[in-house]
Specification:
With 240 residues, the chain is α+β, with helices and mostly antiparallel strands. 40% of the residues lie in helices and 22% in strands. The N and C termini lie far apart (49 Å).
């Protein structure tokens, strides 16, 4: 598989041609995503998948990240997955920072996760998925691939043979137009990922691994009763 480690300069682009192994890996990842998303659709939900699996530029460490963008009852999601034959081996609640939404993560294996917000997302939080490239169940069934930006701040634009990639630095408005998102989310992601590249990853504000008998919504209520910042976020979003 072709790998480009360093971002290209302003105005540069590069075509990447996929080998048969990459096409096969993409097919396998998408088939698994379709099975999971199909269960959720039958249960009345509207899942998306995003990132490299939506764009097509997958690698050996690519994950399957399936998202329900609306607030949903966690027990219903868990029940659907388990009834469909998937074992949930880990349940984790995460809040990236005091101002960010709290999300639930259901891990089906190390590289497969179903997530959903526990309170309503902001416009930027919702656009985060579109920024990276997202597709719905029916689009995935049709084999559609979509443009999005990877963690190197490279715009990935699918082609019949692979993709064309180009740096988004100094092209924020153009990229926002291509992806159908606001310039604000593009600027935010550039700032976050550029800082991460220079200072490294920082820890998340809140990460809680649920016990077997715990429920996401009840745990969030308990945490917010003791954590002023999390409680303030819930109040600001009308969840309390």
């Amino acid at each position: 598989m072709s790998k480009i480690k360093k971002p290209l300069g302003k105005g540069e682009f590069r075509e990447v041609i996929y080998e048969m192994g990459r096409w096969k890996l993409l097919q396998n990842l998408r088939l698994k995503a379709l099975k999971i998303m199909g269960l959720l659709v039958k249960g009345g939900f509207s899942p998306i998948t995003h990132g490299s699996i939506a764009r097509g530029d997958v690698g050996k460490n690519s994950d399957i990240d399936i998202v329900l963008v609306d607030v949903v009852p966690s027990y219903k999601v868990e029940a659907l997955l388990e009834a469909g034959g998937f074992k949930i081996y880990d349940r984790v609640m995460v809040q990236a920072s005091p101002r960010h939404v709290v999300k639930a993560y259901l891990y089906l294996d190390e590289l497969t996760v179903v997530s959903f917000p526990l309170v309503k997302m902001t416009k930027n939080e919702r656009e985060f998925y579109k920024f990276g490239g997202e597709i719905e169940f029916e689009e995935l069934k049709k084999g559609i691939r979509i443009a999005g930006v990877d963690k190197r701040l490279m715009l990935i634009e699918p082609t019949e043979k692979g993709h064309i990639e180009s740096s988004i630095i100094s092209r924020e408005s153009e990229v926002a137009s291509i992806l159908g998102v606001s310039v604000e989310i593009v600027n935010e992601r550039v700032k976050v990922l550029t800082r991460r590249d220079s200072v490294g990853r920082t820890g998340v504000y809140l990460k809680y691994r649920l016990k077997e008998d715990e429920v996401f919504e009840e745990v969030l209520k308990e945490i917010s009763s003791k954590n002023p910042a999390t409680r303030r976020m819930l109040i600001d979003r009308g969840a309390l």
